[in-house]
Design brief:
Pfam families: Pre-PUA, PUA_elF2D, SUI1, SWIB_eIF2D, WHD_eIF2D. This protein is α+β, with helices and mostly antiparallel strands. About 30% of the residues lie in helices and about 20% in strands. Strands 1, 2, 3, 4, 5 and 6 form a six-stranded antiparallel beta sheet that branches. Strands 7-9-10-11-8 form a five-stranded mixed beta sheet. The longest helix is centred in the middle third of the chain and has 22 residues. It starts with 6 loop residues before the first strand and ends in a 6-residue tail after the last strand.
Length: about 650
Amino acid sequence: MFKKKPQIKPAAPLRSSDRRKTADSIIETFQLSPPTPSDVTPEQKAEATTKHTALRNSLLPDNVQSARFTTTHGPDLKQVSGTVYIGSHEGEDARILWWQVDGKMYPSVYTLWRNPNIVPLLHTPDIVIRKLQGGADLMTPGLAGGPPFSARAKKGAVAAIASTERPSVPVAVGVCAIEVSALEKVQGQRGHAVENLHWVGDELWSYSPSEKPGRNPPEEIEGWLKESDDRGLGAGTEELDLDEADGEGGVSLNGHSDGPSAEGQANGEHAEAGNAEDAETVQEESARQGSSEMSQKEIDDAFRAAFLYGVYHHKTTQSLAPSFGLVFPLSQSSTMSNLIQPFLPAFTPEQSNQLQMKKTSWKSIKKFVKAMDKEKLVKSKDKDGNETVIIDIDFNDPTIANFKPYRLPKKETMAGTSLGRDDKATEQIDTGDDSVGQKLQVVSYFKPTTKLQPLFASASKQLFTPPEVREIINAYIEQESLLSETNKRLVRLNPTLGNAVFDGSGSLDKEVLAKGSVPRDALIDRILHAMNTSYAIVRNDTDASAVKAKSGTPPKLQITLETRSGNKTVTKVSGLEAYYIPPRPFADELRKVCAGSTSVEPLAGATKKNEKEVMEVMIQGPQRDAVVKALEGRGVNARWVEVLDKTKKKR
């Protein structure tokens, strides 16, 4: 749920009454406090009240704040809204402790590390944990340490997941998709066991109001360790074996390799493939069993299903955009790169080699488009004699409307693991864009003019930040004994201030000069406005003093929406270079995210002589939100972005 950064609104303190009410609701929902007998003594009642208050404070400390958030979840990227609860315990920095969606509360790993046993704890091998931290669900064959499993692991119950190597440290939170407690065996079973919602390494874990990195898990938690020992986890995991002969590095259960691996199951590689069977796709099954060639019919079916998936994806994710985000006519290359290739079920290098258009019965994308036209899924026409373009798609056709999505390979599988890079795929591939995840800071400087130089004579530099200007002016006022004796907020003017600051150009200059005094804040503000401005954009942990300042005010990143060819909207982005963002990798990311074509061209009239070219990225469709989100992932604050919408009609 939090693989991508959620949009979190400003947090507000939670009222004491609301905090107690929310904490009591959590205690009741998760059954954390035993019922109090009716025949207790006053001393026992007082002790129970003390324990209850301590439990409240442990779950929701008194400094907790709440904020609304919005994110996407599931294969259809359904928009989800809810509330996060941010707080800190003594000696710790503030973190998201709970989040609430549809009235149901979920604990973060930070809450689980401090409050053992508030939810059932399940275990899986460490190799599967790495898949969970990529967003995969925990599949039934991936369960370790049972049966029996925790009696509280009922269907719909919130559950924690830990590695068998560190069984007392929860690293993921999810919801049981089945009655895990009722399982009598896991070998040979299929299906989701736990729907993964949050894990160490996701955006909820890394969120911090002070922008500190996420906290690493502890080595051991005594409260959780007791539960693991009581369940005999060590004995339960003895049968698990890492099968080195498995080409995908999967976990074979009980030493057998004739079924899907635990890793593969945790990766969710068994979902529907456009049919009603709850089984692995033909491609995935054949890959694990080492089968050789796919038949031409299987390749044809894969390409047709990929095209339908691409259209369905646009229809469900961009429902408010004109033509669901597709800009017609669609060229052959655009159809292949945006509607087919991303949705091919290529899980292994062998499948990637077999799933080629030239190995289909159509042999070319041109004939494929004409075949879709013959099925009346699309309308096409020949262009320039050698290309067939799609001019319309029947989005209401039952084949598209009733399409059932199937599981797709992870990005690292398609781009890395399928090429034999295993788990290091995303670490070793150089995307050419090191701006992702960077931290940016815009520092403003002020330089005194010639008239103001006497006020800064004691300073050894020429550029000052606003606090430094204030400090120097205050020191000058004290040195010259200019504070009014009757009102410490007023500063008496001396000849230097009168000539350098109040030279008669301002509307209030005559009044100030006539009175002979001015409020201290007004004086400092007037001096700042009279100084020359400079700025520096500082990246990551670079010392601001080491970055050469540029004159003027910080440039704005420009996002422009405009209409072309009558009714087609495009989104343009410029000014990326100033914020250390390479335009071409940025355009490549948006091309995949927006499933539309992009281009990078020099911005006309923006480059001066002997300067580097200023590039402009153009994306098909109204993609302002996607651009802003991509910029946020590169450390760009919304204050540094200027949006111009030229598509709105003038009144």
